[in-house]
Amino acid sequence: MSSGRGGRGRGAGGRGGQSSPAISRGGGGRSGGGRGGQGGGGRGGQGGGGRGGRGGGGRDGGRVDHPATQQFPSPTPQPTPVASRPPLETSAGASSSSSTTAALSQPEASSSRIEAQLEKTLVLQNVPPSSSKAMTVAKRPGYGTIGRKVVVRANHFLVQVEDKDLYHYDVSISPEVTSKKVCRDIIHQLANMYKESHLGGRFLAYDGGKSVYVAGELPFSSKEFIINLVRNDDTGSSQPRRKEREFKVTIKFASKPDLNHLQQFLHGRQRDAPQETIQVLDVVLRTTPSIHCTVVGRSFFSTEFGKPGELGNGVEYWRGYYQSLRPVQMGLSLNIDVSARSFYEPIYVTDYIAKHFNLRNLRTATDQDFRKIKKVLRGVKVALMCGEHARTYKITGISSEPVDRLMFTLDNQSTRTISVSQYFHEKYGVQLRSSFLPAIQAGNDAKPIYLPMELCRIVNGQRYTKKLNERQVTELLRATCQRPENREWSIKTMVEGNRYNTDDIVKDFGIEVRAELCDVDARVLPSPSLSYHETGGESRVDPRMGQWNMINKKMINGGTVEHWACVTFSSRLDKDLPSEFCKQLVNMCRSKGIAFAPAPLFPIRAAHPNQIDTTLRDIHKDSVNILGPKGKSLQLLIIILPDVTGSYGKIKRICETELGIVSQCCQPRQAQKLNKQYFENVALKINVKVGGRNNVLTDAILRKIPIVSEKPTIIFGADVTHPQPGEDSSPSIAAVVASMDWPEVTKYRGIVSAQAHREEIIQDLYKQFEDPQRGLVHAGMIRELFIAFRRSTNLKPHRIIFYRDGVSEGQFSQVLLYEMDAIRKACASLEADYQPPVTFIVVQKRHHTRLFPTSRDTDRSGNILPGTVVDTKICHPTEFDFYLNSHAGIQGTSRPTHYHVLFDENNFSADEMQKLTNNLCYTYARCTRSVSIVPPAYYAHLAAFRARHYMEVDASDSGSTGLGGGIVQVQRLPTVRENVKDVMFYC
């Protein structure tokens, strides 16, 4: 354990801390020493051990209660040499003692064996944390200083608040209302009716749910109100239907939020943010726009912000803005960004169906089309446009019979049955023109309501939540893509138009919003030097503006492709084109350093797209027959895809999970061009898919990366992708990748796993199950990757850096607690007392902070320069976070990535973490550009996206899912073959 927080010099303990029962925190810091100290040991010190020091300690973590342990298995190293690679450490960095190299007391189960065993196991345990005690998020270690200083503008607007007494009241509405829009209308009407007579002249700030906030005390502690709500349905009818309903509203005192707590937090004198107080102010600023706009999450949309734009297929987009109040270093900030979302076009259902499915004649619609229509329209509100007034209904289904044959019994004449078509003719005098169409069903199956499609109009302002197709996405991006100067102007105009400072509710709470974007001090980090093979014309490159090229360069470690094949499923290509395509691609690969056999294993094959399954299996069978006796296998299959999209996922699933074939898919339109740049890009992907490296950070070769180069370090990337909205049973997909080389940290092995629907915590990081023969078996993604690292490098990881993508702020503590605990348990299951220090960083791309240049010092797209980093003013008041724009913009406004260091036992300084993250962004395998998100997290996203393809074939057979404890049943992913997992197959 650490002996506390000492100084950076002499003494026992530096940057240490205390360990918690759940996860050792800080008791680890640079345990037993300060930076550069003596005696206790620090960076380079002795005794306690520090960076490169001798003895125990250094930046090691504390200890936890752990399961019964097994030692690392004996490694089976498969080293890949790197040019000018220095000799590996064998002392502090990589102990080779018997305690770390002894074989497991029980044989290590392969992942395929484990997954097969899980089907037979009695209980699959999602092991809970050993303690529920919350972890403390890492504090900021200081501010970065490296780089050229610049000033940027951020779309954050300073908010100032007067010291007022705030009151929180609970609200209940009876009968219960599920629509937030209706709830807001009720409270808005109550406020207008009773403000002076019963509310003491106070304005009400309402959150749309159970809470009302007031700047001052109401003249009662509890009171009931009766509200007769009159609403006009927004149906597009010239005679909207007027609804009147009576509601009982009860307002009751709940609490008194304290603004002083917020001030204490903003000044660093209180650790935890007073969420209730921030919530009050956020609701105040959102109350008025919530009444007048369509609310989607934290965004507001209205046709008043611009005419809706057509996306095609019955979908349109509305303009609006995102708004969020957050505490930052400069005080309270209102983050505002322009936004756009897709909505249903307010058109007749028949017109929508024709547009959505591109049907000129609805008579041609098939039963399969109507099954799709039912899925698309379920939950959509429509207005029946006949009679005196329009009335709204929510679609629950579609009838199996057309309206002229769909019979029902009249309520007032139980003996008479009548068709829907006949009913509307008799009651409304309407002669249906599309009586061959099925009816829309509203209500439930027990008491359905049938409505003719041609008389139903989609109600205005309904968000389209289904997945947009490729053309719609392109249209939306084209319509909303703005250069930085245009987006900055749009944001400023939006803020001015919102008139926050003249809003009565905002003024009543003493809130003032500055109208100017804030200026922020930033720095432009230097780009790293990259190393290529010394036999190329250039063995070292210094990227400019986040870009470089492969001219006169060879991959630093070219892979080997002795046995390969090619198949084309495209009919548009000339007969000889696939052969020429392969010839030029092979030549490019060879010129870049890949040892590529000039001829395929057998002649290039051509097949019809409906023969994908059999063709791929035949290729595999033939390759096994030829190479099997020699103990070899097919190393690469080049596939020219069919002309019609939709086969990629099926091909990857068959190749990677069934046949164990590494494949490279190519679009037929690209194959036709025979473009040199395209061949270069494909060569980059092929090289890492056959075990090579494209480039390496020069500092990695020279062992000059702080912290990472000092001791064997494993870098993880993790992500969870969730099903599209509307898919309420499909599992979420978790992916974890980890570096398999040190000190280069460029090769990443990936593992994927299915888990409960929309579950964000990665459930399979560590798991254990009971085997009838072997007893308790330890397994999980972390453990498997640790063992793979050991086998690949002949080293045991002494540090862990974990980049975790896709976590929102509200999930920080839960994800950190559970996933750090899983990491600890996985380590402890490998070896007694094995607890390497961990740095856990959340990577956030889905935020709305934008940084704009204040001078002409920009890239070619007009964006801020690659390497621009911000860790002041708009960042967290006390925690360790920063915004990094690591890439050069292509079009539109660049989005910096937000990195939040939640846990740091390796004690990175701000400069060390920012520089490492920025430099890693230059090692992404698929292009010669720096990328916007750190590659481990990027690779995890690619792996999870790939695994989604594995499930599409069985999407209708998903099992039940559950959230929470107990046994969780989810649809299993097919297992990726071991030889495929050995390489970066997801690239």
UniProtKB/TrEMBL annotation:
<keyword id="KW-0810">Translation regulation</keyword>
<feature type="compositionally biased region" description="Low complexity">
    <location>
        <begin position="90"/>
        <end position="105"/>
    </location>
</feature>
<dbReference type="Pfam" id="PF16487">
    <property type="entry name" value="ArgoMid"/>
</dbReference>
<dbReference type="GO" id="GO:0006417">
    <property type="term" value="P:regulation of translation"/>
</dbReference>
<dbReference type="GO" id="GO:0051607">
    <property type="term" value="P:defense response to virus"/>
</dbReference>
<keyword id="KW-0943">RNA-mediated gene silencing</keyword>
<feature type="domain" description="Piwi">
    <location>
        <begin position="636"/>
        <end position="952"/>
    </location>
</feature>
<dbReference type="GO" id="GO:0003723">
    <property type="term" value="F:RNA binding"/>
</dbReference>
<dbReference type="InterPro" id="IPR045246">
    <property type="entry name" value="Piwi_ago-like"/>
</dbReference>
<feature type="compositionally biased region" description="Gly residues">
    <location>
        <begin position="1"/>
        <end position="17"/>
    </location>
</feature>
<dbReference type="Pfam" id="PF16486">
    <property type="entry name" value="ArgoN"/>
</dbReference>
<feature type="region of interest" description="Disordered">
    <location>
        <begin position="1"/>
        <end position="112"/>
    </location>
</feature>
<dbReference type="Pfam" id="PF16488">
    <property type="entry name" value="ArgoL2"/>
</dbReference>
<dbReference type="InterPro" id="IPR012337">
    <property type="entry name" value="RNaseH-like_sf"/>
</dbReference>
<dbReference type="GO" id="GO:1990904">
    <property type="term" value="C:ribonucleoprotein complex"/>
</dbReference>
<protein>
    <submittedName>
        <fullName>Protein argonaute 5</fullName>
    </submittedName>
</protein>
<keyword id="KW-0687">Ribonucleoprotein</keyword>
<dbReference type="InterPro" id="IPR032474">
    <property type="entry name" value="Argonaute_N"/>
</dbReference>
<keyword id="KW-0678">Repressor</keyword>
<comment type="similarity">
    <text>Belongs to the argonaute family. Ago subfamily.</text>
</comment>
<dbReference type="InterPro" id="IPR032472">
    <property type="entry name" value="ArgoL2"/>
</dbReference>
<feature type="domain" description="PAZ">
    <location>
        <begin position="348"/>
        <end position="460"/>
    </location>
</feature>
<feature type="compositionally biased region" description="Gly residues">
    <location>
        <begin position="25"/>
        <end position="59"/>
    </location>
</feature>
<dbReference type="Pfam" id="PF08699">
    <property type="entry name" value="ArgoL1"/>
</dbReference>
<dbReference type="InterPro" id="IPR036397">
    <property type="entry name" value="RNaseH_sf"/>
</dbReference>
<dbReference type="InterPro" id="IPR014811">
    <property type="entry name" value="ArgoL1"/>
</dbReference>
<dbReference type="Pfam" id="PF02170">
    <property type="entry name" value="PAZ"/>
</dbReference>
<dbReference type="InterPro" id="IPR036085">
    <property type="entry name" value="PAZ_dom_sf"/>
</dbReference>
<dbReference type="InterPro" id="IPR003165">
    <property type="entry name" value="Piwi"/>
</dbReference>
<dbReference type="InterPro" id="IPR003100">
    <property type="entry name" value="PAZ_dom"/>
</dbReference>
<dbReference type="InterPro" id="IPR032473">
    <property type="entry name" value="Argonaute_Mid_dom"/>
</dbReference>
<dbReference type="Pfam" id="PF02171">
    <property type="entry name" value="Piwi"/>
</dbReference>
<dbReference type="GO" id="GO:0031047">
    <property type="term" value="P:regulatory ncRNA-mediated gene silencing"/>
</dbReference>
